[in-house]
Each structure stands twice: as structure tokens, then as C-alpha cells.
């Protein structure tokens, strides 16, 4: 640990700025502090215990190349550029300056700003530091595990690996085909923002244009617009619902681990000294010089690989169990093989610093390789135990949160269903009410028409009654006339009988005179009889008309009574509809309550079914994306690595099958193949 003492001079102290993948740390150290002191400070500050995977890197002030900090030497004795505080405290104003410097420290020296896609964020405070001398170093991954999902213990370790691998892919230091890059971009969005549906429902809009999602090669080699890329990435993103940040980052690392160049450090070598004149500093430069290069050496956690044609298919592979030792003398590197017939293979690097870096990486990877095959130390066991306990607690909390979320979603869906049912029922009631109102209006119109008809019938009945009264009056008058005529007839008959009696006594003249009067009276009586008969016929007709009028009046009265009954029923039905409310609706059917265990099992089954459906949807979307990329790719812009990847894909090879082929045969046979290369 460094000592912070006020008695020390400022010239004996240095301000170290350590850039991690997502933060900036500042420490004040003494001039005599060693590298492991600063490295321990960084690990303690960020809470990292799996420190053996990481290292500190700096820009060599002599060779202007990236160099690993030697932890056993003092920091100031190494060729680190020392800057004054006034210059170092000023942050770059433009993003291009930062992009040109920081993203490419991981595998190669910085290149032009056009190849950068990300910049490291800063958490440091502005203002001058009391120290005058400032050192800038970068805390990055140095060694990779064999199985990244099982060997990494801490969440902070996985997070740092995720950030580094993501930046390597975006900077094209690791070759990644476009479809896999889109899939990894969707996992990165899930890790950063969470579920898409929850984010889209928020008030803040999502701007993907500001996010570094894909390598520039995806836009250059495939004829798809940025909007098309983003829409397909979002569609893939939606299939990762309910993944936490840790799960998303682990899924990212699982898929990235299958890439051919994952975890490999490449160096250009030659059989003879002086054959190499340059060491390509970027992936694009190495692609352009891939045909002219003699051999590439790849070092990872499994062993050493030798490449001839491209960096996706190793020609010869030696595991660390096949290698006895590695030695370096100036530019020369010697591999000593183990076995009955020990053999050596010597090759040359471009510079002595490169050969030292090869030796450093080979030694560190070999130590970790052997350490993984020995019994775990107490520290590792404690870390795994505590991490397992934390993972169980996190899993319990996540399970509980998922259950609460599912329960809340179910309650929300139930409320929405009830609300939709109530809306549907209210709509049906409203439609029924409108129908009743239309029927009521129609019945009102019919009632009005019926009342008009009743009025007209009443008027007709009144006229008939008037005519009936007139007929009665005429009948009475005719009866009076009839009685008068009967009286006159009786009087005439008396006169006739008197005349007949007197006719015997009177003379013939008087008799003839009376006979004339009698004939006149007889004709008058006959005429009156005819008139009486006609009057009887007329009275009979009027009586028939009176009976018909009475029947019609009775039918009209019955019709008015039925209309009144219908109106009363309609009014009662309208009152019932108007007074009804949703509270009077029939309750939902009874459902027996379920126990918590049954509810949890149902939720888990539903969650698994949903997860399987999303996985199937993800496979279909990736297959469709592959077909679109195959149809839209620009042939003249395909690099040598793209063509090599297509060749491997055509013959069904992948990272593991090519490595198995390169490691087939005995060590001596592979050594002979290596000499032939």
C-alpha cells in the first residue's frame, strides 16, 4: 500500500489515473511504489478478487506501443509517459480524440478515429490534482479462462469481461459475422436498458442512434440501412424479456466465446530473423497483409496455435500440456515440447518487446492452465461458496420479484378483462337502450296514429249516433203518421159503413156521389199503405246500420284498450332499463381459490413455456436475418476473413472443430507439420 505523507515532496509523488472499462480512478503513489501495489489498489477499490485475469497496460514512451506493466518492478522505472498535471487534467473536447486513443488499447495501438466505435466513460472530478506528475494506465483483461461461464466467479469479473469483449467486437479486434453481431447487440441492449416493453411504455423515448451497437463492417459490407439494422436488433431484443443484467452479460459472453478469435492474442512471426518488417496495429491492416504474412502465432488459455492462411483456421495447435517450456532471447522465441522425444521449435518476432510479451502471455496462460487442473485453493473455495450464497439470494429475490411481477401482471390482466367485460356489457346495454328508445318512438308514433284513428272512429260513431237518433225520430214520426192514418182509415171505414147503410135509403144519385168519394178514399188508403210498407223497410235498414255501428264502436274501444296496455308495458320496461346499473350485473362464476404452491407451479410453467416460445422466435429471427444478410451483402467489400468464415461455414467447421483438427496426431507429427509451414 502506498504511504500518503505530507512530509514527502510533491516531486516524489505521482498521480496515477487508472482507466477501467467503465470508470476512471485516481491514486497518489510514491516514486518507489511497485506495480503490484498499484494493481492491488485498483482491485481493492473496485472490489475485484479474481485479479489473476487482469493487468495494467500503458503506452511505451520509447516504442510508442502498448506494454504490460511489470508488477515486480517499480512503476517509475518502466517506460511510462509522465505528463504534467495541467495538461493531463484537461479532458478531450471532441469525442474523436478520446476514441482515437482509448478503445484500441485492448489488442492493438490506437489507429485513426474512423475505426473507433466506443469511448471509455470517466468518473473523475474536474480540477487540478495536487501532484505534478501524472501517469495514465489502463486496467484491462490480460488472460482469458477456458470456460468463461463456469470459471468466472464474481459478478464484477463477468461485468469487466463483458465490457472488454464487447469493445473488442465493436473495434473489430475479434471477428464477428453480422448476424452474430446483431444478436450480441440485442443482448447488450437488454443488459443496459432491461426489458424493451417496459422501456417503450415509459415517457422517455429511446434513441438507438447514440448507442454503439454494431461494428462498422456491418454497415460497410451489408446493404442495409441503419434503421433496418436497428429494427431487427430491437426485434431480437424483445425476445430477451425478463433477463437480468447479469444474465444478459453472461449470455453475451457465452455466445462471444464461440467466436474463432475470442481470447486469442495474435503475433506475426517468421522462421528466419528479420523476415518481419512491421507489426500490424489494427484488424484492418492485418487483414490487408494476411496473404503476405508468413505465420501468425495465437496464444490463449488452451495453448499456442499457428496460422498460415487466415486467423480463423489454425494449422497446428499445441496445448499447454504438450509444451514443456517457453524461452525468449532478444527476438527469438523457443518452444520446448514435452514427451519422450523432446523437440524444440524456434521462431522470430518483429521486435524484442514482442518476444517478451509472447513469453509473458505464454507463462501466465500456462500457470493458469496448470492451476485449473489442480485442487482449488481455500481462497477459491471461499469465493465460490460466498458467491454461491449470493447467487442463491439473488435468485430467490429475482424469483420473488418475478412472482410478484407475474402476479401484478395477472391482476392487471384480470382488471383489464373485467373492465373490458364491463365496457362490453355497458355497450350492449347502451345498444339495447337505443333499440328500446327506437321501439318506444315507433310505439309512440303508432299510438298517435291509433289515437287519430280512434278520434276519427269516434267522430264517425257520433255521426252514426246522430243518424240513429234521427232515424228514431223519423220512426216515431212515421208511427204517429201510421196511427193517424189508421185512425183516418177507421173513420173512413165507419163512413163507408154509414154510407152503405144509408145507400139503401138514399137515391141512386146520392149513392153514385158517395161511391166516387169512396173510390177516392180507397185509392188514398192504398197509397198510404204503400208508404207505410216503404217506411217499414227504411226502419229495418236503419236498425241494421245501427247494429253495425255499435259493433264497430265496440271493436274501436277494445283496440284502444290493447294499445293502452302495450304503452304501459313499454313504459315499465323503459323504467327498468333506466334504473339498471353495472352493479346489478350477474357476478362472475365461482372459482375455488388456489394455494400458493399451486399458483407458483402454474407461474413457473407459464414462464418456461413463454421462455421456450421466445427461444423459438429468436431462432427464426436469426435465420431470417442470415438470409437477408446473405442476399444483401456487398461482394466486393468482403474481406479475407469474411471469405474464410464463409468457407468454414460451408464445410460445417467452427472454432472447436478446427482446433480439434489442428491438434490431431502426435506432437512430433504436428512439429513436422509446423516445420513444413
CATH architecture of the domain at 264-274 and 293-374 and 640-676: Roll
Detail the poorly predicted runs: 1-10, 86-129, 277-293, 580-587
Radius of gyration: 56 Å
| Separation, N- and C-terminal Cα atoms | 49 Å
Q: Tell me what portion of residues adopts beta-strand conformation.
A: 5-15%
Q: Going by CATH, what is the homologous superfamily of the domain at 264-274 and 293-374 and 640-676?
A: Pleckstrin-homology domain (PH domain)/Phosphotyrosine-binding domain (PTB)
Q: What would the CATH topology of the domain at 264-274 and 293-374 and 640-676 be?
A: PH-domain like
The DSSP helix count reads 18
Query: In this structure, how is the largest beta sheet organized?
Result: 7 strands, antiparallel
**Which term fits the overall shape?**
rod-shaped
Structural class: alpha+beta
Roughly how much helix do the residues carry, as a percent range? 55-70%
Could you characterize the architecture of this molecule?
By secondary structure, the protein is of the alpha+beta class. Among the domains are: 11-85 and 131-142, Roll (Ubiquitin-like (UB roll)); 143-263, Acyl-CoA Binding Protein (Up-down Bundle), CATH 1.20.80.10; 264-274 and 293-374 and 640-676, Roll (PH-domain like), CATH 2.30.29.30. It has helices at residues 35-46, 85-88, 95-101, 148-151, 155-170, 178-193, 196-200, 216-221, 226-237, 245-257, 283-288, 352-372, 378-505, 508-579, 596-632, 640-650, 655-662, 667-676; strands at residues 13-19, 24-30, 54-59, 66-68, 82-84, 133-141, 265-270, 295-299, 303-307, 316-319, 323-329, 332-337, 344-349. The two termini are 49 Å apart.
Amino acid at each position: 500500500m502506498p504511504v500518503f505523507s505530507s512530509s514527502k515532496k510533491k516531486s516524489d509523488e505521482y498521480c496515477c489515473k487508472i482507466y477501467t472499462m467503465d470508470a476512471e480512478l485516481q491514486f497518489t503513489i510514491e516514486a518507489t511504489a511497485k506495480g503490484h501495489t498499484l494493481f492491488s489498489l485498483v482491485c481493492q477499490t473496485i472490489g475485484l478478487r479474481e485479479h489473476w485475469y487482469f493487468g495494467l497496460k500503458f503506452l511505451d514512451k520509447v516504442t510508442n506501443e502498448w506494454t504490460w506493466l511489470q508488477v515486480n518492478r517499480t512503476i517509475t522505472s518502466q517506460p511510462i509517459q509522465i505528463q504534467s498535471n495541467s495538461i493531463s487534467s484537461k479532458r478531450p473536447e471532441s469525442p474523436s480524440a478520446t476514441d482515437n486513443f482509448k478503445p484500441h488499447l485492448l489488442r492493438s495501438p490506437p489507429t485513426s478515429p474512423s475505426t473507433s466505435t466506443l469511448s471509455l466513460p470517466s468518473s473523475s472530478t474536474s480540477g487540478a490534482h495536487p501532484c505534478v506528475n501524472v501517469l495514465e494506465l489502463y486496467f484491462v483483461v490480460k488472460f482469458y479462462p477456458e470456460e468463461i461461464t463456469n470459471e468466472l466467479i464474481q459478478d464484477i469479473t463477468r461485468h469487466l469481461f463483458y465490457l472488454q469483449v464487447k469493445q473488442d467486437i465493436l473495434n473489430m479486434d475479434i471477428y464477428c459475422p453480422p448476424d452474430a453481431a446483431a444478436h450480441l447487440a440485442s443482448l447488450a441492449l437488454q443488459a443496459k436498458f432491461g426489458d424493451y416493453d417496459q422501456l417503450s411504455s415509459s415517457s422517455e423515448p429511446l434513441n438507438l442512434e447514440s448507442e454503439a451497437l454494431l461494428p462498422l463492417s456491418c454497415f460497410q459490407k451489408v446493404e442495409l440501412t441503419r434503421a433496418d439494422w436497428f429494427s431487427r436488433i430491437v426485434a431480437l431484443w424483445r425476445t430477451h424479456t425478463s433477463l437480468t443484467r447479469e444474465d444478459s452479460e453472461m449470455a453475451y459472453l457465452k455466445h462471444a466465446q464461440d467466436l474463432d478469435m475470442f481470447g486469442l492474442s495474435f503475433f506475426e512471426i517468421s522462421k528466419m530473423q528479420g523476415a518481419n518488417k512491421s507489426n500490424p496495429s489494427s484488424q484492418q491492416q492485418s487483414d490487408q497483409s494476411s496473404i503476405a504474412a508468413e505465420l501468425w502465432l495465437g496464444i490463449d488459455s488452451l495453448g499456442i496455435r499457428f496460422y498460415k492462411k487466415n486467423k480463423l483456421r489454425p494449422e497446428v495447435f499445441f496445448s499447454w500440456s504438450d509444451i514443456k517450456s517457453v524461452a525468449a532471447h532478444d527476438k527469438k522465441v523457443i518452444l520446448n515440447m514435452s514427451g519422450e522425444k523432446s523437440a524444440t521449435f524456434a521462431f522470430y518476432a518483429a521486435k524484442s518487446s514482442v518476444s517478451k510479451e509472447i513469453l509473458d502471455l505464454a507463462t501466465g496462460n500456462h500457470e493458469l492452465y496448470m492451476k485449473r487442473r489442480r485442487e482449488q485453493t481455500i481462497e477459491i473455495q471461499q469465493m465460490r461458496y460466498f458467491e454461491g450464497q449470493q447467487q442463491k439470494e439473488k435468485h430467490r429475490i429475482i424469483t420473488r420479484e418475478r412472482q410478484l411481477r407475474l402476479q401484478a401482471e395477472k391482476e392487471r390482466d384480470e382488471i383489464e378483462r373485467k373492465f373490458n367485460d364491463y365496457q362490453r356489457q355497458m355497450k350492449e346495454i347502451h345498444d339495447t337502450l337505443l333499440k328500446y328508445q327506437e321501439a318506444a318512438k315507433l310505439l309512440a308514433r303508432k299510438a298517435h296514429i291509433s289515437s287519430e284513428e280512434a278520434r276519427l272512429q269516434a267522430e264517425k260513431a257520433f255521426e252514426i249516433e246522430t243518424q240513429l237518433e234521427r232515424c228514431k225520430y223519423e220512426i216515431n214520426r212515421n208511427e204517429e203518421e201510421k196511427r193517424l192514418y189508421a185512425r183516418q182509415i177507421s173513420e173512413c171505414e165507419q163512413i163507408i159503413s154509414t154510407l152503405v147503410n144509408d145507400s139503401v135509403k138514399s137515391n141512386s144519385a146520392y149513392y153514385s156521389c158517395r161511391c166516387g168519394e169512396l173510390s177516392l178514399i180507397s185509392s188514398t188508403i192504398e197509397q198510404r199503405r204503400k208508404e207505410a210498407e216503404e217506411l217499414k223497410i227504411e226502419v229495418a235498414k236503419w236498425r241494421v246500420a245501427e247494429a253495425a255501428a255499435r259493433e264497430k264502436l265496440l271493436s274501436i274501444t277494445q283496440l284502444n284498450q290493447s294499445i293502452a296496455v302495450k304503452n304501459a308495458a313499454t313504459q315499465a320496461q323503459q323504467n327498468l332499463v333506466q334504473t339498471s346499473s353495472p352493479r346489478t350485473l350477474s357476478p362472475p362464476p365461482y372459482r375455488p381459490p388456489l394455494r400458493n404452491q399451486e399458483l407458483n407451479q402454474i407461474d413457473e410453467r407459464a414462464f418456461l413455456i413463454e421462455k421456450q416460445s421466445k427461444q423459438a422466435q429468436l431462432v427464426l429471427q436469426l435465420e431470417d436475418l442470415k438470409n437477408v444478410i446473405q442476399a444483401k451483402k456487398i461482394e466486393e467489400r468482403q474481406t479475407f476473413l469474411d471469405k474464410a468464415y464463409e468457407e468454414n461455414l460451408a464445410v460445417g467447421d467452427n472454432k472447436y472443430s478446427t482446433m480439434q483438427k489442428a491438434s490431431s496426431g502426435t506432437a512430433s507429427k504436428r512439429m513436422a507439420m509446423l516445420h513444413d509451414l
